Inverse folding.
């Protein structure tokens, strides 16, 4: 298990980001989806938690088959997806990712939002930090973004919002910007497989950091599109975009509706902690060539991980992996 805390500041308020987050996630998911690949919304409904109160539960399927290398596609199911479950009690959220094909792999993200510059060292605990959890600050303006995701219109060094008059953020903007908020994310990655755990967990964290950087950049770059929206308007945008995205990737579920009746807490148990996975001292079954089929010369007999600096591997996460993707209750 590898845990890191990410801190991402934005020139917004926590209340503003409540709308902006929903807009950004819906638009981003739609842009990143294509035929047979993308994010399918399975459930989206209110949820009551005895500890956190009213919230929203969302379950999604993230289809990934085309993102796998050719040798991996030969041994995984034809329809391969990651399940995302999110419990949103804004400004506090929990998001979990699991994969039935990789039962020892999971991602757990706990998020809190505050109107500050990322200065709260004990936001996830009342006790002082023990120093074991690495803190990673992400600068949405000046941190380098993967070239394939770069767009001139989303380069915040040169962007200025017409509606809010915020922008043209200079070096050191975090120290001088008003308003400012911080998205605190405690991310736990587990891949408890003998011989692979450390490298895979480190690699996944590298990808998650890129995803968080891109998403928060877009939230501000698109601010003029959503800043005037009400909660009702962004909910309608979310509903329409989710339906369009489901059709775009080739799934045809019933029309999505956001229920107005909260689910009782006993009907769907919320997460208590990061998902647990059993330890194993044996190599995972999916690394072996199936006995029922003839051995393919083109398929490798063992899994070779890429250099940690590269992004093309079995464990390449899509850009729409959520920093949080569940809508907030009204």
């Amino acid at each position: 298990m590898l845990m890191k805390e990410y801190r991402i500041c934005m020139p917004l308020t926590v209340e503003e980001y409540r709308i902006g987050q929903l807009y950004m996630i819906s638009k981003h998911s739609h842009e990143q989806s294509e035929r047979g690949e993308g994010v399918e919304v399975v459930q989206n409904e209110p949820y009551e938690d005895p500890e956190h109160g009213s919230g929203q539960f969302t379950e999604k399927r993230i289809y990934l088959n085309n993102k796998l290398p050719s040798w991996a596609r030969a041994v995984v199911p034809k329809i391969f997806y990651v399940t995302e479950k999110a419990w949103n009690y804004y400004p506090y959220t929990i998001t979990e990712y699991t994969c039935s094909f990789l039962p020892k792999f999971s991602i757990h993200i706990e998020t809190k939002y505050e109107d500050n510059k990322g200065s709260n060292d004990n936001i996830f605990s009342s006790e002082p930090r023990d120093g074991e959890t690495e803190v990673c600050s992400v600068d949405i303006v000046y941190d380098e973004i993967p070239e394939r995701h770069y767009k001139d219109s989303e380069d915040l060094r040169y962007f200025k919002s017409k509606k809010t008059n915020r922008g043209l953020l200079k070096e050191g903007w975090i120290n001088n910007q008003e308003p400012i908020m911080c998205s605190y994310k405690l991310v736990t990655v587990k891949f408890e497989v003998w011989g692979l755990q450390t490298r895979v967990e480190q690699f996944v964290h590298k990808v998650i950091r890129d995803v968080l950087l891109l998403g928060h950049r877009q939230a501000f770059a698109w601010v003029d599109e959503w800043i005037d929206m009400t909660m009702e308007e962004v909910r309608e945008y979310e509903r329409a975009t989710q339906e369009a995205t489901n059709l775009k990737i080739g799934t045809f579920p019933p029309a999505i509706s956001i229920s107005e009746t909260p689910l009782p807490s006993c009907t769907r148990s919320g997460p208590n902690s990061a998902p647990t996975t059993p330890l194993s001292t044996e190599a995972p079954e999916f690394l072996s060539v199936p006995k029922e089929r003839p051995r393919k010369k083109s398929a490798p007999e063992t899994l070779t991980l890429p250099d940690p600096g590269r992004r093309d591997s079995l464990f390449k996460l899509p850009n729409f992996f959520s920093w949080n993707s569940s809508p907030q209750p009204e």
About this structure: The longest strand covers residues 38-49. The chain has six helices and eight strands. Strands lie at 2-10, 38-49, 53-63, 81-89, 92-98, 105-114, 134-138, 181-191. The domain at 2-32+101-246 is CATH 3.30.530.20 (Alpha-D-Glucose-1,6-Bisphosphate; Chain A, domain 4).
